[in-house]
Amino acid sequence: MTNRDMAAKIAGGWSDAEAVPRFHNQIEVTCGNPDTIAGMLHYIQSLGFEHMSNLTCVDWLEENRFDVTYNLWSYKYKIQATVKAGIDRGEPKIPTVMDVWPQAQAYEQEIHEMFGVDFIGNPDLSSLFLHNWKDIPPLRKDFDTEAYSKEAYGAQRNKEV
Amino acid sequence: MLKISREEIIDGKFERVLNFFRSRSLWMLYYCTGCGAVELPPTMTSRFDMERFGISPMATPRQADILLVTGYVSVKTLKRIVYSYEQMPEPKWVVGFGSCPVNGGIYWNSYATINQLDKYIPVDISIPGCMPRPQAVIDGLLSLMDSIKKGEAVGYKKYRMNNDWYKKNQREILERTKPVLGGKK
Amino acid sequence: MSGPGKKSFFSPFKLLKNFLKKPLTVRVPFEDIDTLGRIGASPEYRGFHYNDHELCIGCGTCQEICTTDAIRMVEGANIGEGKLGKVPEIDYGRCCYCGFCVDMCTTGSLSMSRHYLGNYPTPVDKIGNAEVDDLKEHFIWTPEMQYSDDPGHMASDDQVWLDLERIPMTELSPEERWDSFIEIVRGFTKDEALREASRCVECGVCVETCPANMRVPQYIHAIWDGDLEQSVREMYSENSLPGICGRVCTHKCETVCSIGHRGEPVAIRWLKRYAVESLPVDKVAEIAGEMTAKTAGKKNRVSIIGSGPAGLSAAYYLAGMGYQITVYDSNKKTGGVMRYGIPKYRLPDEHLDRDVEVIKRMGVEFKMGVRVGKKIKFADIKAQSDAVMIATGYDLPRSTGITGIDGKNCYQAFDLLKAISAGEDVPLGKKILVIGGGNVAFDIARSLARIQRSKTKKVGLTMVCLESGREIPADVEEIREAIDEGVVLYDGRMPKEVVFERGSLKGLRHIKCVSVFDEQGHFNPVGDESDSEVFNTDMIVEAVGQKPDFSYLPDDAIKKIEIIRGKILTDEQGGTALPWLFAAGDIVHGPDIIHAVRDGHNSAKAIDAYLSKGK
Which of A16, B86, B137, C603 could bridge to A33 as Cys pair (CB 3.0-4.6 Å)? Predict the structure, then answer.
């Protein structure tokens, strides 16, 4: 099965999914309704994408949107699918996909810490790396890491800008 | 408040004799925090053989004399470093590896790493490099042995005498109660 | 190997052979490892830096490329032309020894050594913040030559990150150009200009050197961004004749360009030309108009005598400040020496007119063909205006003064160039001799050679100059191109007298020139009479320089202002001893177009200050 056929199959079987084939073995899937992301991923998993290799998040500051991105891999068809779910940056909430892939728990915990995305249903969203963090999540685009370092740890610039 | 005089901090004659023997048997806490960890296996093992100078790795802080801070220190690591340092029995010494403990190094503007280690625990010797080669590590440790013999490696005494200052700096980072950037959004 | 259970009785004794082996342990610090044939770190090791302050120009490229903000530029002793007086200071509490600074170093002065040992025991008597700062500052130092004894990673031309080679400029071949006045240089295409602009490291060494302090890094950056309008805007802030300077500037900026230390300098002049040329003249005029803020209510009149680069420059900036400007010039067309001195194959008239058009649209009034002192009295101009600026340039030819030089068939280069520019017929010999080795001499020689070739298909033109080889004052390209076009150069000869036979010109007797300048560096040529010969010719053109003409100035003004060696003594802003009189251009600083542009700009500011003071 080529990525073109697979894209058609995904888009045909799930009404909120929009799938576009990319390059020779990749598919870009956009989830129209993030509230149903778990069900959609369950459906995509049933098509042969048994492996979730990564879960990450992209901050689109100007568009006021987070793209929660799931990288899936099918060992059977050798196709890689990138599933994107765009959520509102002001109130970032998305259901957990722990029921589909249990290992998503740690990924979601990390994204919650670094981007502040709330994964509904994930039992443990405690801090993983940061100690006693009070500011906005550090990987958001509007977080000024140098200003933070200056204030918190007394960092000084050598080069005059 | 922070004052120190050579007379009260440098060891007396009896201590100096002890120091000579101490310097020949340094046990180090092999608690690797940063990239420098990779330079230590060749330094410890037969290629550069640190044991020629009586320096050997030790598993627990309670039996160690030297704490190696091998590279950048994140806030979370700093907490563990302070715990370990405080568990070590005196006399004890701290070695700062490479650029990062001196002035932040390559991670100087990171949100998660401190810039100057010396603010939080007393560093006795700093070795430049990114990371220092095993030769540089041995050079630094020999220099530390020399300082110990002369009784000039007195970081632990400074820590004891100015505990308030160090604790204040540590608390500022570890026990923060409000946002640093003033809650900017 | 013997298997289990079959061990020999002696097998434990095999251990003994290890006593003879060389031990694996390297007994640092008493010995060190051998890396690729060298004891210690590897031959290309990146350890502590060292920096040759005599080579370093302080361009700051190392600081710019540094990934960890470890480099700060501090005051240094490296002052001089093309040097910014700054040296890098390195913070080893930041440095990650990546060596980017060495790969990017424009002069190759910064290198890394194989030294890496430098531990620092914390001092006993310091505590608290003092101790923290001491530790930090111990690892910050300005690298000098202290580690140069053991070089490691050094700047090499095959690893350099700079683009050392210039994008070649398309030029007409000698065969294509030698019988016409078509412009030789074609100019950059868009792609070439982008690639050339990308070579610039934006260090700003050129800005210090340019007499007009043009904002070179900014306008090259704008070209690289593809924003030509911004680029032209940057140019007009300091130079009102960018189109002309883009062709015929003496480009001192390229002589000092930091890339030129290891490779070929960035073609700053051609980039400037590209930017101005690519925009239509209406757009350029619009940008030039918006640059200078028009302030209403300034009714003062300023008269400018001379429409050369200095006059035009002052007219532009003064008009932009809102003054009423009148420019007087004795020639029929504007431009002065740029039109009547520079041949068309270097500066075509249409490009000169473009820059003048921009200035005309600023509301400047031009009165052409008016020779001050003849058609109109200087006193009248003075009476009509609140301030007068003179920028009359070098108007009269200088002569060698050898016997017979004012005879028949002997001409002055300046007059001929003027005639050629105006399209008039010029006298032409079969074997022409040009005396002089400056740019003007080459201009007239190449112009005459073109006319000769277009008319007779043959070139008979020889140049005689005092200087020899590399001492010839003209540009190197000028000499090379002249020789390509068939001009014969006879250097190191000193003209002695013009030989006449039965009333007509026979030739020029010249002797060997031993030295041109005396020990004090003054012009004082010495010849060797024993080596004398006569060169047969039927036409001699003299091109040994020009001098100013101050005859139009009234006597009382000449008495008050100081004139030293043909140059008017002014303050830095172009003001003379008379408060209402300003001078600029060649008559102040000697012949140089970009200097004249700067003078015009300075005088404009000074005139503005003078006229505003009265209110």
Answer: A16
Write out residues 100-159 of A within 8 Å (CB-CB) of C.
157-159
Q: Distance (Å, rounded) from C-alpha A97 to C-alpha C278?
A: 58
C positions 45-74 inside 8 Å of B (CB): 67-69
Task: Label residue C369 left, alpha or beta by phi (over 0 means left) and psi (-120 to 50 means alpha).
Answer: left
CB proximity list for C609: less than 8 A, separation 6 or greater: C573
Dist. CA C584–CA C211, nearest whole Å: 13
What is the ipTM for the molecules in this complex? 0.93
pLDDT in tens, chain B (185 residues): 567 777 778 777 888 889 999 999 999 987 778 888 899 999 999 999 999 999 999 889 999 999 999 999 999 999 999 999 999 998 899 999 999 999 999 999 999 999 999 999 999 999 999 989 999 999 999 999 999 998 889 999 999 989 999 999 999 999 988 888 875 54
Q: Which chains touch B (3 or more CB pairs under 8 A)?
A: A, C
What's the N-to-C CA distance of chain C in angstroms?
Answer: 110
Domains and CATH numbers, chain B: 12-174 (3.40.50.12280)
Q: What is the CATH number of domain A3-153?
A: 3.30.460.80
Neighbours of C555 (CB within 10 A): 7
Which residue numbers of A have CB closer than 8 Å to B's CBs?
A: 129-132, 134-136, 138, 142-149, 151-155
Answer yes or no: are the C-beta atoms of A26 and A71 closer than 8 Å.
Answer: no
Percent of chain C with pLDDT over 70: 98
Least Cα separation, residue A50 to chain C (angstroms): 41
**pLDDT tens per residue, range B7-19:** 778 777 888 889 9
Q: Which of B74, B79, B109, B173 to mutate to test the interface with A (most CBs of A within 10 A)?
A: B109
For C515-559, the pLDDT digits (tens) are 888 888 788 888 888 888 888 888 889 888 888 888 888 887 787
User: Nearest CA of chain B to the CA of A56: how many Å?
Assistant: 20
Q: Give start and end residues of each alpha helix (H) in chain B.
A: 6-9, 13-23, 40-44, 75-87, 100-103, 134-150, 155-161, 163-174
CB contact residues (below 8 A), chain B span 27-46, against chain C: 46
Burial of C180 (0-12, 13-18, 19+ CB in 10 A): middle
Question: CB within 8 A of C54, min separation 6: which ones?
Answer: C78, C109
Residues A147/A149/A151/A156 CA torsion (nearest 10 deg): -90
| H/E element, C613 | helix C593-613
- Give the closest-approach CA distance of B149 to chain C in angstroms: 13
Backbone angles phi, psi at C141, to 5 degrees: -150, 160
Bridge partners (DSSP) listed for residue C433: C462, C540
Type of residue numbered C343 = P
Residue C468 tokens, joined: 């020899």
Residue C179 in tokens: 């019988």
Q: What is the pTM of this model?
A: 0.84
Nearest to B108 among A134, A151, A155 (CB): A155
